[in-house]
Every structure is written in structure tokens, then in C-alpha cells.
């Protein structure tokens, strides 16, 4: 540990990002080595910082931060890199890894409540949003493609808000847990789709 930092080896894989402490760094060809920590790439956000900017901060160093959604809230980790090239490489690896993870995941289904009624929300990478009464095999209440989504928001506690511009108005879904994993996953799906369409470099 130096200047409040721990040396870590970080490996971004297709579905997960894994960490090894440099004090227990695995040697090439060594089997049975257990990472000190791992997390899924899909429910994740990130940001970067050049010296002189406000956040995330580790003094005058180049840093990037990852924000991973969990049922208990957000787990934020700040990483320092030595130069702009490393920062660009890590940013590219995280973006591409999250997009690849989204394409592999394809669909998630969440049990939740709408106006006190038990429902399930399915978010599919290709077809968009489906809200079913009772469970995923129940009757369909609403179905919308991604391009119909006008607004999404959350209260940081348990509620997810989706507005598709339909006659039902804004849908306030009670997820019964922190909504950040779903929010980050939704943003990753949207980012991956926009990139695949060639709208972002």
C-alpha cells in the first residue's frame, strides 16, 4: 500500500472483472489461484478524471472509477494509472467489456410491483421492455421497444421510473431493493445498442 493505494492486478473478462492483490499475484501457469474480488461488468458505470478535475480524486494523478450496482447500493472503486495511454486503454477495455457482457446476457427479468400489484419486468437486448402481470409467464400488460423510452429515473432506494409516452403515463416500479443494478444494466444495453448501430465512435 502506497499513498492510500493498493497494488492490484485487474483482468477485464467478458462477463466479469476480477482482481488479484499484487501481494498474492498469480504466476503464469499457476492453477487454483483465487481472485481477491470479482464483479459483473453489466450492472456497472465508470468515469475518468484528469488532474485538475473534480471527481473521482486521488490528488494530481490520472484516475478512473467504476461504480457497480448491488442490491445494497453502489460499490465505487477508484484506480490510478500512470499515463493517458493507460487511461484510454482501460476506458476502452471497460466499455468494450460491458458491451460484450450485455450482448451475452441478452435478457434480465425482475420481480417487482406496480401500483401494489405483483408484476415482472423483462428487459431484452433486442426487443426492449415487457411488463407481465404476476410473473414472466403471465399476461402482458405493456410491451415497448427501446426507442419508445422517453425517460428513466430512480430514487436510489427501491423505485424505478420508466416513461414510454403511452396512455398509462409514467410507470413507477417498486423493485423491493436498490434499483441501481437494473439502472446500470439498462444504460449498458442502450450504450451497446447505440454503439452497434454505429452512432458512437
Automatic annotation (TrEMBL):
<feature type="domain" description="Syntrophin C-terminal PH">
    <location>
        <begin position="104"/>
        <end position="199"/>
    </location>
</feature>
<dbReference type="InterPro" id="IPR055108">
    <property type="entry name" value="Syntrophin_4th"/>
</dbReference>
<keyword id="KW-0963">Cytoplasm</keyword>
<dbReference type="InterPro" id="IPR015482">
    <property type="entry name" value="Syntrophin"/>
</dbReference>
<dbReference type="Pfam" id="PF23012">
    <property type="entry name" value="Syntrophin_4th"/>
</dbReference>
<protein>
    <recommendedName>
        <fullName>Syntrophin C-terminal PH domain-containing protein</fullName>
    </recommendedName>
</protein>
